Amino acid sequence: MLSAEPIIYGMIFIGVLVMVNGVYLVAFGKSISLSNKVNRRLEMLDKGERREDVLAKLRKEMDQHMQSRSLPLYSLLADKAQKASIAFTPQQLIMVMGVAGVGAFLGLTIGTEASLPIRVVMGAVMGVGGVYMWVSHKANKRLSMIEEQLPDAVELMVRSLRVGHPFSSAITIVSKEIKDPLATEFGVIADEATYGRDVGEALKHMAERLDMQDLRFLAVAVAIQQQAGGNLAEILEGLAKVIRARFRLFRRVKAITAEAQWSGKFLSSFPLGALIFIQVAKPDYYDEVLDHEWFIPACFIVGIMLTLNIFVMRALVNIKV
Q1: Where do transmembrane segments lie in this chain (predicted)?
Q2: pTM of the predicted structure, to 2 decimals
Q3: N or C terminus of the chain with fewer C-beta within 10 Å?
Q4: What's the CA gap between 159 and 237, in Å, rounded?
C-alpha cells in the first residue's frame, strides 16, 4: 500500500516557503520585490515620503542584521539576511520562523500520523529551514543581479564624468537610470553624500556589507583618486573592463563546473530520494531491521557521510575568480 506521508511532508514545506514570501510581500508591498520595474527608493519618494526618512529607513534595513549576530539562532541567518537586505527586523524574522514552525506542526498533525516528538522536530526543522532557504535564495539572487548590473553602472558613471558631472552627481544618475537592487544601493550612497558623508567611505561600507570583491575595487579606486588625484573617468573605465572580464570568466567557470555541481547534488540527493521512494512503494521494507542494534548508528553514519559529501563536492567546484 502506497504511503502519502512523504508527499504531505513536501507539500507542507513548500507551503512554508509560500507563506513566508507572501507575508513578506503583504508587509512591505510589491516594491520590495527584486523584479519590480521601478526601484524601491524612487517609489518611496514618489509616495511623498521625505528624503531623510527614506534614507533612514533603507539604512536601517541594510545594517540591522549584522548588528544582531549575537541573538541566539539568528547568527545562522545574519550574513545571508544582510546580503539580501531583508526588510524584516531580526526579531520579526525569528518570529516568522516560529510561526512557520507552528504552521508546519499543525499541518503535520492534520495530515500525518507521526508521533508527537517527530511532529515537533519536523515542525521546527521546516520552520527554521524554510526561512533559511528563502533568505538564502533572495541573497543569492540579489548578489547575482548586482554583479551583472555593476559594469553597466560603472560605465554610466564614466560617461557622466566625461560630460562634466561631479562624481556625486554621477552616483545620483546611476541611482535613477538603472534598476534595483543596485539602484537603491547607489541611491542611499547619493543621499548620504548629500548629507555630508564621504562617498569613498560609503562605497567601502557597501562593499563590506555585501562582501563583493568588485565593489571593493570600486571603493579603493575612488579612495585612491580622492587622496592622490588623477583622472577618475579613466580609472573607472579600466575598472569597468576588469569587472566585465571577471564576470565573463566567472560565468565561464560556472559553465565548466556545472556538470560537477549537478553531480554533487545528485549524489547527495539520490540516497534521500531512494529512501522516500522505498517508503512510498513499500512502507514495511525496513521493518525486519528496525530493531537491530546497528540500525540507528548506521542511519547516523549515513547522514554524516551525506553531509560530508555536500561540503566536499562544494569545495571541489568552488573556484574563486
Answers
A1: 6-27, 93-110, 116-135, 262-282, 294-317
A2: 0.75
A3: N
A4: 9
